[in-house]
Amino acid sequence: MDTPERQAHAAHQTFQKSVATGGKGSAPAARGPSAHLAADSPEVVAQLELLDDAVFDAIQGKAAALATLHFLWPLLKCRLGESLLAESREQYVRYALAVWNEPVAGEDNHDPVRAVNALEVLCVLFDEI
After folding, report:
1. DSSP assignment, residue 126?
2. Residue 71 and residue 51: Cα distance in Å, rounded?
3. What pTM does this model have?
4. Phi and psi at residue 50, to the nearest 5°
5. Do 92 and 55 touch, CB atoms closer than 8 A?
6. Under a CB-based contact definition with an 8 Å cutoff, are residues 126 and 77 in contact?
7. In the chain, where are the structural domains located?
């Protein structure tokens, strides 16, 4: 059975005007709390440091840190917004992948438990748990 081709249409002019100019009838632009916080403000830096501690400690196997991460991550997503957390999450992914790519079992520095911990942390950071 053939499926009909779908064609995308340009945005309607009235919608374009109301969004571009904030015209009558348009909803105000959604701005979360992160719109009021500078990325380098002491408050943001302190919160990101707490997140760093929770992530790295959870990967090291500290159960309390994983519990903290489960609480802290959604809270900071609401407070700071995705854009402020994107760079941190990217660094955590790199670190977790480095843990996964440690030399294979049988070598002194490979710890499969840390690899599982890293996976758990990634699941939290990508809202899979």
Report:
1. T
2. 10
3. 0.66
4. -60, -40
5. yes
6. no
7. 46-129
